[in-house]
Design brief:
Layout: H1 9-31, H2 38-45, H3 49-55, H4 59-83, H5 89-104, H6 109-115, H7 121-132, H8 136-144, H9 150-169, H10 174-193
Helix pairs in contact: 1-2, 1-4, 2-3, 4-5, 4-7, 5-8, 5-9, 5-10, 8-9, 9-10
Length: about 190
């Protein structure tokens, strides 16, 4: 039986999986999508080449795991930021500001890189399902504000957020973009329907 580096086999496997995801993310940030190869990833993680295939059947599977990890981290940070403010408009402002600040900090880069990968249709569907969870807090905020059809309106807000993310990604001031997105959302989505 192979030597394990954790108290249980399950923990050992979870640790190795996490190490490969972290290594894949590092390679993706440093070398771009073309640099993410099984060989580079396992070398960065300090594992044998065959280890890659113990955890991921394809490069797509690794990219989806990297994206999922990035989205989970993003969600955790958004949840923590929202826990510090009152519900309603303060929460909406915080959500928008946090989204733009995190984009400026480079945390949206992973999602952009993975989105540009030539993923299989099923892998792209998996990625979009993870990404769609990011709009959940907006649906809740709009519901708290009494906005009719909050799920539909949240999709419009998502469109504005995506535009803001693109602007920040291209060098626009995150605070200015957040202010503008908040103004458009509150005047066009919240105020009209409330």
């Amino acid at each position: 039986m192979p030597k394990i580096s954790a108290p249980t086999v399950a923990e050992h496997r979870a640790n190795r999986h996490a190490a490969l995801v972290r290594a894949g993310e590092e390679v993706l940030r440093e070398e771009g999508l073309a640099g993410v190869t099984p060989g580079r990833v396992v070398a960065r993680a300090g594992l044998s080449r065959s280890s890659f295939y113990d955890y991921f059947a394809t490069k797509d599977d690794l990219l989806i795991a990297i994206a999922r990890h990035a989205i989970e981290q993003w969600n955790s940070e958004i949840d923590a930021a929202l826990a510090e403010v009152d519900a309603g408009l303060p929460a909406l402002r915080q959500f928008i500001e946090s989204t733009m600040r995190m984009t400026a900090d480079g945390r949206h880069d992973i999602a952009n890189a993975v989105r540009e990968a030539n993923l299989s249709p099923s892998s792209m569907d998996d990625l979009m399902a993870f990404h769609d969870k990011l709009i959940g807090p907006v649906v809740s905020i709009l519901s708290e504000l009494g906005v009719p059809s909050p799920q539909v309106k949240a999709m419009y807000v998502q469109g504005l957020l995506n535009s803001g993310v693109q602007m920040v990604s291209h060098g626009c001031d995150p605070n200015g973009v957040a202010d503008e997105v908040f103004q458009i959302v509150t005047k066009g989505v919240v105020q009209e329907d409330s």
